[in-house]
Amino acid sequence: MDYDVKDLGLADQGNLKIEWAERTMPVLRLIKQRFQREKPLQGIRITACLHVTTETANLAKTLKAGGADVRLCASNPLSTQDDVAAALVKHEGIPVFAIKGEDNKTYYDHIESAIGHKPHVSMDDGADVVSHLHSKRKELLKHVIGGTEETTTGVIRLRSMAEKKVLRFPVISVNDADTKHMFDNRYGTGQSTLDGIVRATNRLVCGSTVVVAGYGWCGRGIAMRAKGMGADVIVTEIDPMKGLEAVMDGYRVMPMEKAAPIGDFFITVTGNLKVIRKEHFAVMKDGAIVCNSGHFNVELDIPALEKLSKKKRQIRPGVDEYTLNGGRRVSLLGEGRLVNLATAEGHPSSVMDMSFANQALGAEYIVKNHKMLEKKVYPVPTVIDKEIARLKLAGMGMAIDKLTKEQEKYLASWEMGT
């Protein structure tokens, strides 16, 4: 079996962590049990470019249980858990190509290895496999029947491809599922981002000023968690509706140029580039801490920070301290990459349970319906979304009401008024 991981000797340790995560992933467990019986992915080759974590490992095992030939590579150079990668290779026989801290060349070599089996289905977190297939390996596109996409940044890229008529196969936007973005993005990113910051810095959030750039679902979650930890939260936005929502939620809203001199922590979650730029770094207070929880580190203009600095050193694991002219110090966490994965372990497994349930069922949907789908980005079908929510509630020991016949009739009628 072809693979490239750091050390197979880490496999047993990784296996225990995968088992621990699985205990709070009841929805994916139920899907895996059905997949083992029905084999809906039999003979399907899947290339998954995802964060190689314990939760992803349970998704890979589920896809394999469904009959798929799965290959896995990392969607971010710093997000791989090396023991998990080793466990999948040694104990599950799943080819993995991922090493934490890999350089840019190795990253793309690993994507090449992951698509070496000529995939039928792509499974992305950031659209790097789709982009690579369309730009570098066009000859493999004839094998691909569809794909799934996990994250906001990837969906933005794919919708751009679809609008320009260059997307060559249908893609299910897992990110648009309510059971993904309303929970994974808000509660998962919210908790794991603050977890990454605290692990990296050991700084007190309470009483500090936290600047959150972007008030989408991820920004909402981060702002909520920071406020819950006692921070004074400032939100920066370009959308007046989201800016207004942030104000109504109790946060201060202002442009980044005004927030830059007063923030203690800066967190970007916009999906755009150069959100924090040279002019912002230049006025930050001594000791400011900057990080990113969007998919790519381009949200921070790191080259500009380098040019402004006269000295750089790693002062703690995952913390690069830049000394600017005048002696002020700005610290960058996790090289500007996803801080929740670069300096912590990513989302809690109970949240990823729903996201990866969407991935598994999205892949099954593509296999069953690809001949009827156009070459564009589709939302997760509502019936799948609601079934995942139902299963999650059941897994948590919760139940909801059902409409009575009288209530159903009332909601369907126009004759009955007040």
What keywords describe this structure?
single chain, 418 residues, alpha/beta, Rossmann fold, 2 domains, eight-stranded mixed beta sheet, seven-stranded parallel beta sheet, 17 helices, 15 strands, 44% helix
Description:
The chain has 17 helices and 15 strands. It is of the alpha/beta class and 418 residues long. An eight-stranded mixed β-sheet has the order 9-8-7-10-11-14-13-12. A seven-stranded parallel β-sheet has the order 3-2-1-4-5-6-15, with helices on both faces. Helix 4 (82-92) links the parallel strand 2 (69-74) and strand 3 (96-97). The model has no long low-confidence stretch (mean pLDDT 96). Its cofactor is NAD(+). Belongs to the adenosylhomocysteinase family. Pathway: Amino-acid biosynthesis; L-homocysteine biosynthesis; L-homocysteine from S-adenosyl-L-homocysteine: step 1/1. NAD(+) binds at residues 151-153, 185, 214-221, 237, 272, 293-295, 340, 347.
Largest sheet: 8 strands, mixed
Between the first and last Cα atoms, what is the distance in angstroms?
69 Å
| Rg over alpha carbons | 22 Å
CATH class of the largest domain: Alpha Beta
Strand order of the largest sheet: 9-8-7-10-11-14-13-12
* Discrete helix count: 17
Mean pLDDT over the full residue set: 96
| Oligomeric state of this protein | single chain
**Poorly predicted segments:** none
How large is the share of residues in beta strands? 15-25%
Topology:
Blueprint lengths: L10 H12 L3 H13 L6 E6 L3 H12 L3 E6 L7 H11 L3 E2 L6 H11 L6 E4 L3 H8 L10 E4 L2 H12 L7 E3 L4 H24 L7 E5 L3 H12 L3 E5 L3 H9 L3 E2 L2 H4 L5 E4 L9 H4 L6 E5 L9 H7 E8 L2 E6 L4 E5 L5 H4 L6 H21 L7 E3 L2 H14 L9 H8 L6
Parallel strand pairs: 1-2, 1-4, 2-3, 4-5, 5-6, 6-15, 7-8, 7-10, 8-9, 10-11, 11-14
Antiparallel strand pairs: 12-13, 13-14
Helix pairs in contact: 1-3, 1-4, 2-3, 2-15, 3-4, 3-15, 8-9, 8-15, 15-16
